[in-house]
Amino acid sequence: MAGEGAPAPSLKALFLGFSSVGLSGFGGVLPFARRMLVEERRWLTAEEFNVLLGLCQFLPGPNVINLSVAVGSRYHGVSGACAAAGGLLGGPLVIVLLLAVLYDHFGSLAVVQGMLRGIAAVGCGLLFATAIRMGIAVRDKAFFLPFAVLVFIGVALLRWPLPSVMVTLLGLSATLAYWRVQDAAAR
Amino acid sequence: MPLLADLFLRFALLFCVAFGGATALLPEMQRVVVEQEHWLDQATFIHLYAIAQAAPGPNGLVVTLIGWRIAGLAGALVATLAMCLPMSVVIYFLIPHWERFQGARWQRAVQMGVAPLAVGLVFAGAALIGGGAGLAGMGWALAAGAAAVNLRSSLHPLWLIAVGAGLGLAGWV
CB-based contact (8 Å) between B122 and chain A? Predict the structure, then answer.
C-alpha cells in the first residue's frame, strides 16, 4: 500500500523528515507529523495516515514514536523503522540531555527549583486540561466514565501496580464495549 | 540484577500497558522509580517532568531523563530503548494485517474500552504532579489558570510554560 505518486523515501529522507517533526513541537508533535507526512512530503495520503494512526493509537506506547516506526518499516523494514524513530528522537534527545547536564550542575539552586516548580504547576494544569478533553471525547459516558474513576482510585489513591489494574479493567471495559458495539449495530 | 537490565525490563513492561502514551504512565513510573525502588526522590522526579515539559519533542522524553538520573548516559539510552522497543516489534508484525483488523468488532471494542482508562490515568498523573510538586495556593491557582486557558483558547502551551517558569523564578509559586 505504498503511497501513490510519491516515490519511496530513502533512509536519509526518513531520518531527516522525522527529525524536523521531533524538533518542531513542544508538548506533543503529532500535528507536525501529519503535516510532514501528508502535506509536505506526501509519503502518505490522508486516508493512509488515518489508518496508520489508528494502529498507533490502538496500541500502547507513545503514539508518535509508534507512528514513525510504522512509516519507516513500511518503506525499508527494520532499518527504515530505526531511521525514522532515530530521526524523531535524536534531536530532542540531545537537547533534553543537555538540559539534564545543566540540571545536574544547577538543580540545587533555589531559583532553578522555583522555576521548575512553576513549570510543573503549568504542566499539571495542562495534564488536567488534556484529561478533561479526553474525557469529553469518550463515547457512551454513562457506561464508560466509571472506568476512568476506577483507574484513578486504583492508580492515584490506592497506588496499585498499573499492569494488573490495566489488564483487569481493560478486560471488563472491552467486554462491555463488545456488547455496546453490538447494541449499536442492532439499532 | 544489574541496574541497567533491571531498568530496561521494568520500563519495557510498563510501556506494554501504556495506553494513552508516556503521559498516562507518569503515576506508575513515579510509583516504581520513587516509591518502590528509591532510584530518585520525589522532588527530582517532578523536576525531570518539568524539564521534559519545557523541551521540544515527544512527551516520552521524561523517560530518557529518568534513565539519565538513575544511570547516566547508558541509563538514558536504555530507558529510551525500553520505551520504544516493545511496541515497535508489535507494529512491525501487525502492520501487514492491520487493514484487515481495522473496524472488526473486537478491535472497536478494545479501542472503546481503552479510552476511559487512559482518561483516568492522565487525571492520576495530573494529581500526582501537582501533589508531588508541593504546590500551595498560588501554585494550584496557576495550574487551574493554565488548564482553563488551554481548554478555552488556542494559545500555544509554550507561552503558559514560559509564564510558569517566570512566576516560579520570581519565587511566587
Answer: yes
